[in-house]
Amino acid sequence: MSWGTELWDQFDSLDKHTQWGIDFLERYAKFVKERIEIEQNYAKQLRNLVKKYCPKRSSKDEEPRFTSCVAFFNILNELNDYAGQREVVAEEMAHRVYGELMRYAHDLKTERKMHLQEGRKAQQYLDMCWKQMDNSKKKFERECREAEKAQQSYERLDNDTNATKADVEKAKQQLNLRTHMADENKNEYAAQLQNFNGEQHKHFYVVIPQIYKQLQEMDERRTIKLSECYRGFADSERKVIPIISKCLEGMILAAKSVDERRDSQMVVDSFKSGFEPPGDFPFEDYSQHIYRTISDGTISASKQESGKMDAKTTVGKAKGKLWLFGKKPKPQSPPLTPTSLFTSSTPNGSQFLTFSIEPVHYCMNEIKTGKPRIPSFRSLKRGWSVKMGPALEDFSHLPPEQRRKKLQQRIDELNRELQKESDQKDALNKMKDVYEKNPQMGDPGSLQPKLAETMNNIDRLRMEIHKNEAWLSEVEGKTGGRGDRRHSSDINHLVTQGRESPEGSYTDDANQEVRGPPQQHGHHSEFDDEFEDDDPLPAIGHCKAIYPFDGHNEGTLAMKEGEVLYIIEEDKGDGWTRARRQNGEEGYVPTSYIDVTLEKNSKGAVTYI
């Protein structure tokens, strides 16, 4: 099957078909280009999505620790790799398919144009031969008619008796001339006809079949190229399937790595404070004044049962209040000692309670004059919050358990740095020995400054490790002794043990607790008790800035030279004083940068370490 033999008369149709083939090729190239853009945009959006939800790891504290978070971030990493594979697909399609199609389309247009021009030239040459043949034919026909006219004129004159001999001779010469010209035109027409027939045969059996064959081969190559591009389009996707499968397997493994028990343990490790839960509240007997007014100090059996029911009700109410997450409990009065409460019997065998006056009077005085401050949840939270002030070197602003972990982490880091410095010292000593044995390799004295610096670093790290280990031992000792102090505390429960001060702060020594002045009016509503710790601290003086301070660190307060601030907390020996502006903004400023003036009637600063 050949276009040259089967489609010898379909030049225009082949012209349109080849043009349609090139248009289809370019259309498919446009499809591939849009697919590449989709892949690129998809990969870009995936990367933006991963970047949006990936953590900003500016410090080690912000690194994900929970297995669910780690699994999610592993999934994000796998998704990022998946986006990279989509980019690989786009690049492969752009290089192997789209680029090849565009180059081939350009070559195809050039080749088609050349073949069509050759066909048109052959057709134009055949048309020219036909015109020459047709002109010779028309000329031969015209000369034949003229010869026939000349012959008729000669015969008429020859038969005419009146015609002169000269006229007859002239007509005869004209006839011979026309006949000769007709013979020449006949020969020319025959030659042109033979030439045209030869060119026409060559045109339809040699030239056109050759041109159409080239067009057919061009179109078949275009079809083959499309087939290869289809295959390359699919291969670009198939090549990345193994890697994409690994990415999906990584996501599945990340999902399987989630451990809810481990996450729960991490929550405990992260937020465990090391403090003991608050102890039981003592029973409060508000009926003591009734018994004190009775002369015989007795009470009927029905009253005794009623008193027991009231006691149970009171205890139930006391136990019903939740702390730290509920309302703050009312201040408790000390329990009665065995010497202040005993049982007596009446002659009829009934028992009654007898109270001594002095213990009851002592309890009433304690209720009126003393109100133990039990910190609320917000005050506890404020006590160990790092944002309330600059972080201390010994982490004393943290609860015991968290402080112990931070100190242990710092000791581990210092030990690693110490090991690096020791390895560097050993390497320098070995290099020094080599230089001493082979002076041409280097000067041993040039290593002495580096050795001295390394030794200083080692001494500094050892001192830091020793200091942090001392703090760690102190924390572990106090954490272990806190439980004993909780069980051996006084029965009145008026003095808060451990690191919890009455104002909600935490100190290492119970003797350093800051006690507020005794409350002369001990009757406060539960609403006041619940929100009194959220009030701003009172000003205990004022200060004037001697030097300007930028206050870039978190918890610090920027100030200008000559600016006047209120003092709300004195310097506790760490070089920082807590101050407040008139607009209510609070923070820590260096004590050496300010001139402090304290009020004489100030109540003192409240320490939040």
Automatic annotation (TrEMBL):
According to its UniProt entry, the protein's GO biological process terms are: autophagy; cilium assembly; clathrin-dependent endocytosis; membrane invagination; plasma membrane tubulation; positive regulation of filopodium assembly; signal transduction; vesicle budding from membrane
**Coiled-coil region(s) at which residues?**
130-174, 404-438
What SMART domains does this protein's entry cite? FCH (SM00055), SH3 (SM00326)
SH3 domain spans which residues?
538-599
The listed locations are: Cell membrane; Cytoplasm, Cell cortex; Cytoplasm, Cytoskeleton; Cytoplasmic vesicle
What the entry lists under SUPFAM superfamilies is as follows: BAR/IMD domain-like (SSF103657), SH3-domain (SSF50044)
Membrane topology per record: Peripheral membrane protein
- Residue ranges constituting the F-BAR domain according to the UniProt record: 1-263
Keyword Membrane listed: yes
State a single Pfam family of this protein. SH3_1
Where does it primarily localize? membrane
Which organism is this entry from? Pongo abelii
Q: What is this protein called?
A: Formin-binding protein 1-like
Alphabetically list the UniProt keywords: Autophagy, Cell membrane, Coiled coil, Cytoplasm, Cytoplasmic vesicle, Cytoskeleton, Endocytosis, Lipid-binding, Membrane, SH3 domain
List the biased-composition ranges (Basic and acidic residues). Answer: 476-490
What are the boundaries of the region Disordered?
476-534
**GO molecular function annotations of the record:** GTPase binding; lipid binding
Where would I find the REM-1 domain in this sequence?
Answer: 397-474
Q: Which family does it belong to?
A: Belongs to the FNBP1 family.
